[in-house]
Design brief:
single chain; mainly beta; Methylamine Dehydrogenase, Chain H; 4-stranded antiparallel beta sheet
């Protein structure tokens, strides 16, 4: 169960800051934050060709050391912020430099790839610094800071004690600059600014910078000889002649190409006459750049097995390495650009399967990651905010003995449905060191758990074994109250505020209603077959909302628990597996189609709300809605291999009343505790 704090959703009238005509404003959904932080990744893969090593970060807290066949050799937890955003490797020193978002630049000794260790760290005094890319030349590190619009120059001659040398603030339109990548070549520093373009800086006089190319969307760069290649987010790639850096003009921009034409260009690497372009959604596109003025491509020169965020080339092995949102780390054979294929892969941690949110923390269940069972279990992320952006900080991790599938939080305790191992109770009072203090091995395979609002009882959907009711008033010694078999496969359970009935999504058994007024003797009072099967359920008032797989949403009348009846259905675009309700809106975890939001104000006439629905890059299996901070309303999603995402749901600014951003939405007031 997921207990929501007592809130009142912003009504469409009568609330300060929310105009009475809000229903006429255009609504929209905005990606407000992710963990791992894929959207800020730049150079998150580094190679040591001589030793045949790959260093990779998935945007989370770890750096992985692998051989070039992607066999893991070691992992190192670098940061508590869970955002290793940029990597640079110096083979001559066998040192790896990691830009760690809010936690500085870390220097890691990888002389022994099986036992990497941190040698030094630089922490900026400016707490707004958000490091995201690093380049090292000689004994100097150049580190870009994304949100604060600047880059740092650090003396790293002593790897155990990196020190501050200078900080350069970038110029930008209306004072805005967002450096995404940094590169040093031939005495110049090149900075890709996502808002303004590319800045050129003299290494000997870094204060004499200028915004020499207006290239909005500049994200990633590669330098090859006298040419600079710049990816422009959603607008292709620019090739610039940099043979005379002091006299670069618009005429130096000799070519622009966008072979896919679909935008979301993330990274580019160049080897001789070929450029490899990473697309967030569609994978890799190869471009022949032997004639820089006329790049040539072909529809067959693509790899579409996975979208790509960052890439690295190993020409000696005809290989390309990529990180993507749904496939972790991959190795691609690029011998034939018309027939590129996968040769090895490594599933990085943080496959988000289920979530709960409580008191400023997000509790995330990881699915199994790679072959390491210690990577599967419960992660606790602190939720922080910068304006409307959501930042996640990893605070703690607890491995579970089984296959963790769901989590429900009550106070400082997390109850985990742990598959064949039943229910695990984790003490999370110390968010940095959560530990299992109690468990109960159910007869079946615990799929989902609902915890009563008082925290004294747990209701477990136990697969083939049906429903299990546990007394957890003593968290160290959970006791069985009752079990009850169901006709199908119990995959989810939910209770209404009255706590008289439990509603089970029973797979092929449909919706099962259980009288629990006497918890020691539960009794099935009503059942209803659900087309597509029942995978998730949320009960509120006189309706049960059922996630029905490929049939989407089924709305069932439960006013008479002995005779549930179908009121309406709505076929979502994906595979509906989980559902929650906030106000008049049902939020449906719809698999690879993201989150489908349906207005159920009239249960007999459910209508999709396309403005607040969100098509994510991963595989949504859980959703938490109705979380309000400073009049901003958020939904959180468990997005499978893409990790966790925060979505901001709001009304767009009223053009007739500039400055009015409602920052909220939904309908109806729920000044009561709503469970899930």
């Amino acid at each position: 169960m997921k207990i929501k704090i007592a809130l009142c959703l912003l009504l469409l009238s009568g609330i300060s800051g929310l105009p009475a005509h809000a229903e006429t404003l255009e609504k929209t959904v905005q990606l407000a934050g992710q963990w791992p932080a894929y959207y800020r990744q730049t150079k998150t893969i580094a190679l040591d060709p001589a030793r045949e090593l790959v260093f990779a970060a998935d945007g989370g807290e770890q750096i992985m050391v692998l051989d070039t066949d992607l066999n893991p050799l070691a992992t190192l937890s670098v940061t508590d912020s869970a955002e290793v955003a940029g990597l640079y490797y110096r083979p001559e020193d066998r040192l790896l430099y990691a830009a760690c978002s809010y936690e500085g630049l870390h220097i890691i000794d990888v002389s022994d790839p099986y036992h990497p260790f941190k040698t030094g760290v630089y922490l900026p005094e400016d707490t707004s610094a958000t490091l995201n890319s690093v380049y090292v030349a000689d004994s100097t590190a150049y580190v870009s800071s994304w949100i604060s619009g600047q880059f740092y120059i650090l003396d790293v001659a002593d790897a155990s004690n990196p020190s501050f040398h200078d900080r350069i603030k970038l110029p930008g339109a209306v004072g805005l600059a967002f450096p995404m990548d940094i590169y040093v070549s031939e005495g110049y520093i090149w900075v890709a600014d996502n808002v303004n373009g590319v800045h050129l800086v003299d290494v000997l006089d870094p204060t004499s910078l200028k915004n020499f190319l207006i290239l909005p969307g500049a994200r990633d760069m590669a330098v090859d000889g006298n040419y600079l290649y710049v990816t422009l987010e959603s607008n292709g790639v620019e090739i610039v002649d940099i043979s005379d850096p002091e006299n670069i003009t618009s005429e130096s921009e000799i070519a622009h190409f966008d072979p896919e034409g679909s935008g979301n260009e993330r990274a580019i690497r160049v080897n001789g006459d070929l450029a490899y372009l990473a697309y967030e959604a569609t994978g890799i596109q190869v471009v022949d750049v032997s004639n820089k003025a006329e790049p040539v491509t072909d529809p067959s020169w693509t790899y579409t097995g996975s979208g790509a965020y960052s890439i690295a080339l190993l020409p000696e092995q005809n290989s390309l390495f990529l990180t993507g949102s749904t496939a972790g780390l991959q190795k691609i054979d690029i011998t034939d650009k018309a027939d590129m294929f996968l040769t090895a892969s490594y599933d990085t941690p943080a496959d988000a399967l289920a979530i709960d949110v409580s008191s400023g923390y997000l509790y995330m269940i990881d699915d199994e990651a790679g072959n390491d069972p210690s990577a599967e279990g419960l992660r606790i992320l602190e939720i922080s905010y910068i304006n409307t952006a959501v930042i996640f900080f990893l605070t703690g991790f607890c491995a579970t003995p089984g296959t963790a599938l769901d989590v429900g939080v009550t106070g400082d305790y997390a109850c985990v449905a742990d598959g064949d191992h039943g229910l695990e109770i984790i003490n999370a009072f110390d968010k940095t060191n959560p530990e299992i203090i109690g468990s109960y091995d159910t007869d079946g395979s615990a799929q989902r758990v609902f915890v009563s609002p008082d925290g004294n009882a747990a209701y477990v959907a136990d697969g083939d074994a049906g429903l299990v009711i546990l007394d957890i008033s003593d968290k160290t010694q959970p006791q069985l109250i009752a079990t009850m078999d169901t006709p199908g496969f119990a995959s989810d359970v939910h209770l209404t505020g009255s706590k008289d009935y439990a509603y089970l999504a029973d797979g092929p058994g449909g919706l099962v209603i259980v009288d629990i007024q006497n918890p020691a003797e539960p009794e099935i009072t009503g059942t209803l077959e659900i087309e597509g099967g029942a995978q998730g359920v949320y009960a509120y008032g006189t309706c049960a909302y059922v996630a029905a797989g490929d049939q989407g949403l089924a709305i069932i009348g439960i006013a008479d628990p002995a005779h549930p009846k179908k009121i309406a259905s709505f076929n979502t675009p994906g595979i509906a597996t989980k559902i929650t309700l906030t106000g008049d809106f049902a939020y449906i975890a719809d698999g690879t189609k993201g989150v489908c939001v349906v207005n159920v104000k009239d249960p007999a006439d459910p209508v999709k709300d396309p403005d607040w629905s969100y098509d994510s890059s991963g595989n949504v299996t859980d959703v938490y809605s109705g979380y309000i901070v400073d009049e901003n309303i958020y939904a959180f999603i468990a997005d499978g291999p893409s990790g966790v995402s925060a979505l901001r749901l709001y009304y767009k600014q009223d053009p007739t009343n500039p400055g009015t951003d409602t920052g909220g939405g939904g309908g109806g007031c729920f000044i009561e505790t709503m469970g899930r």
